[in-house]
Specification:
With 741 residues, the protein is of the alpha/beta class. The chain is built from 24 helices and 30 strands. Strands 4-10-9-8-7-5-6 form a 7-stranded mixed sheet, sandwiched between helices.
């Protein structure tokens, strides 16, 4: 690296002389930024893998946010909450709908929102729960970080944060983060609330054990205690969901939000909660000079819209899975643990090296990140980060660790910089466990007794050709269906059969009946009248499944939208998102309905080739994180989206011949792929990635444009591996879905 200029030295010296020494900045002087890149006074470029502790989740100087800022500032920036403004209501309406809560109280920095939550919890404790005056207690986790005000510092367990700042406010009791027994032991009759981070950020991106948040929710509900989650850093897409608590399928009573809410341009925070909590405030009981000002509201509303419009939650889920895979594949003896969710990851290093020194060396090489507690390096790039840029930053990190390791084991020497990518074996080891290791899948199939091609609603269907040999094709269909079912059962699947019905020949394509996720069935609403008679038959069957415990809940597609079930909604367990198809059979807004109903990110992909009218005909998600797809079926933007979110080493491109034989319309069970056709090239590609192909001829069904996937609906897909029952859909009825869609 070239020596830094005198201008940089002067800037560092000036800041050191006039700024209080409460920070120890990495020695770079930043002047400008665009997207995931920052530039210093010498024009040198740095990859931002910190994004100001999630405050710059949208990337630096996002043009839509800059425009919202300048347009509003040119009108009016700050008035007072003593008056109404034209921007606040729209912002809070959008935010409360996203949170699934009733009201919001805006403020400036995040600590102010935490203080607001503390006041609300205590007043609720006195006025609603009837705790004796001045006896209310709030439970907080050891290792917490909620801000730097004196009240918040008082319940920190970090000695350096507390030293010589007392006396502190009483009324807080501690429990061990991730230990539900510790939390239960801390509860008293005076406990009014639990305030905690769903993932502890400053502590080093500490993720609690599976089931912990659900257990906390249960304790709070049982003991009539408020559950308030601080999602200032973890919220708004950072972990691959809108909010980190959605990974556990719970609903808090209150949410504390900030950082990314300001779009990386100005401080905006909010306390969002149920009506019961918010109604403890009355005029004059609380206030904030800059909270909810017109400028902040305009920027925050646009920040939320950008996250939605640009699919940043899905980007975080997909690129976060890639980031974890890459970091887990690094064979460095200096790495003790990699932990995190989405684009929020902590790498804990061996105490033989200083995380601060590693961070400074990374900065020397053009990568900006931050250490915490001397051993953990945090990775939290903007959610807009490009895959290539992310890979480059990981390569630099890996090579930097090699240099430190070399210095520990041999005399100092110059280590050549090499790109670091996981080998196929390393990548496979870092991927999610094979489904085959889990109990066999639960599948639904519909008997083919009345299957025939009797009408034409896609290019594959030709009733005249079917009639030429109808009896033979019908027998062939029965044989193929039976063979497919037998393959599934050999692979350990439990198959539930839906009875056929005369006059509904396409009922056999059960994938179109619904999307089943977290034991909730979102029913199809067909575009073509030829299939609409199936809807009532499907509802009755899913009602029977619910009565027998196969699923818990049933939800309806909004009346003004079309949705053809799992054929246009593919769950990706590696990236923790749903790929959705639109343009031919399903409506684009269904991506939003699915996202809200299941609390998962969705990626809408436009289908343009009429032969590939459902997403399942041109995209197949394999268990190891690989994607088999036929690019020509998609619009240019959709192709770019797939290539942007999926590492090229995990993309398997189907040939035109394979696609035309419906090879992509396949089912993956663990490392077994069930197809109706596969060329030698496709077989080889699957084998190289560790999959075994099972070929089941399904020629009769191909005449209707369907194959193995179309004939199968998976009933046991879960967004939370190992989780029990999901949140009841009764809390989110169809009428609400219509309103929020």
């Amino acid at each position: 690296m070239s020596p830094r200029s005198a201008a940089i030295d002067r800037a560092i010296d000036l800041e050191s002389r006039v700024a209080a020494p409460n920070y120890q900045p990495v020695p770079v002087v930043l002047q400008s930024g665009r997207g995931e890149w920052l530039f210093d006074l010498d024009g040198r470029r740095y990859l931002d893998l910190m994004s100001a502790y999630s405050a710059v989740s949208h990337g630096h100087a996002h043009p839509r946010l800059v425009k919202a800022l300048t347009d509003q500032a040119a009108q009016v920036a700050v008035t007072s909450r003593a008056y109404h403004s034209a921007t606040l209501g729209a912002f809070l309406e959008h935010l409360t709908a996203l949170c699934g809560l009733d009201k919001a109280l805006p403020s400036s920095g995040g600590a102010e929102a935490v203080e607001t939550a503390i006041k609300a919890a205590r007043r609720w404790g006195y006025r609603v729960k009837k705790i004796a005056p001045d006896q209310a207690e709030i439970l907080v986790a050891r290792g917490n970080f909620h801000g730097r005000s004196t009240t918040i510092t008082g319940f920190s367990t970090e000695a350096s944060y507390r030293a010589d700042f007392g006396p502190f406010t009483p009324g807080f009791r501690h429990f061990d983060f991730g230990d539900i027994d510790s939390l239960r032991a801390a509860v008293t009759e005076n406990t009014c609330a639990v305030i905690m981070e769903p993932i502890q950020g400053e502590a080093g991106i500490v993720v609690p054990p599976d089931g912990f948040l659900g257990a906390v929710r249960a304790v709070c509900s049982e003991r009539r205690i408020l559950l308030i989650l601080d999602e200032i850093q973890s919220g708004l897409g950072r972990t691959g969901r809108w909010f980190a608590h959605q990974h556990d399928g719970i609903r808090p009573d209150g949410l504390i939000l900030g950082k990314a809410l300001g779009g990386g341009l100005l401080p905006v925070s909010c306390f969002v909660a149920t009506r019961e909590i918010m109604d403890v405030f009355e005029p004059g009981s609380h206030g904030s000079t800059f909270g909810g000002n017109p400028l902040a509201a305009a920027v925050a509303l646009e920040a939320l819209r950008v996250i939605e419009d640009e699919g940043l939650v899905a980007r975080s889920a997909a690129l976060g899975a890639h980031l974890m895979t890459r970091l887990n594949a690094l064979e460095s003896p200096l790495i003790r643990q990699v932990r995190g969710r989405g684009l929020w990851v902590g790498v804990e290093l061996d105490t033989k090296v200083s995380a601060r020194e590693v961070v400074e060396q990374l900065a020397e090489r053009g990568v900006l990140t931050k250490d915490t507690h001397g051993t953990v390096i945090r990775f939290a790039p903007p959610l807009t980060v490009a895959l290539d840029a992310l890979d480059w930053g990981i390569d630099v990190f890996a090579d930097t660790l090699r240099q430190f390791q070399a210095a520990l084991t041999s005399p100092p020497t110059r280590v050549r910089t090499l790109p670091v990518r996981p080998t196929p074996a390393q990548a496979s080891a870092a991927r999610a466990p094979s489904v085959a290791a889990a109990p066999g899948p639960r599948l639904m199939m519909s008997a083919p007794d009345h299957f025939e091609v009797s009408y034409r609603i896609n290019p594959w269907m030709d009733p005249a050709q079917w009639k030429v040999s109808a009896d033979h094709l019908r027998r062939q269909a029965g044989q193929g269906w039976k063979a497919l079912k037998e393959v599934y059962e050999r692979l350990g699947a439990q198959v539930e059969i839906q009875a056929s019905q005369p006059g509904l020949p396409d009922l056999v394509f059960t994938a179109n009946a619904a999307l089943v996720l977290d034991r909730t069935a979102l029913l199809a609403r067909f575009r073509h009248p030829e299939r609409r008679e199936e809807q009532g038959h499907n509802r009755a069957f899913f009602e029977s499944l619910r009565s027998r415990g196969w699923i818990d809940s049933i939800a309806d597609t909004p009346d003004d939208l079309h949705f053809e079930g799992a054929g246009d909604a593919l769950w990706d367990s590696t990236r923790k998102l749903v790929w959705t198809g639109w343009g031919q059979r399903s409506s684009r807004p269904m991506a939003g309905v699915i996202a809200r109903l299941f609390s998962v990110p969705t990626v809408p992909l436009e289908l343009i080739d009429p032969r590939y009218y459902h997403l399942d005909t041109c995209l197949c998600v394999l268990s190891g994180g690989d994607i088999l797809y036929y690019p020509s079926a998609f619009s240019q933007q959709a192709r770019e989206t797939i290539q942007d979110l999926v590492d090229k080493d995990r993309l398997i491109e189907a040939s035109a011949a394979d696609a035309e034989h419906l090879a992509v319309n396949s089912v993956c069970v663990g490392d077994q792929v069930v197809l109706c056709h596969a060329s030698d090239a496709l077989r080889s590609a699957l084998t190289e990635r560790g999959y075994r192909a099972h070929i089941v001829p399904l020629d009769s069904f191909n005449r209707s444009g369907g194959s193995a996937y179309c004939l199968t609906l998976r009933l046991d897909q879960s967004t939370r591996p190992g989780a029990g029952r999901p949140r009841p859909v009764e809390q989110e009825p169809s009428a609400r879905l219509l309103r929020v869609a």
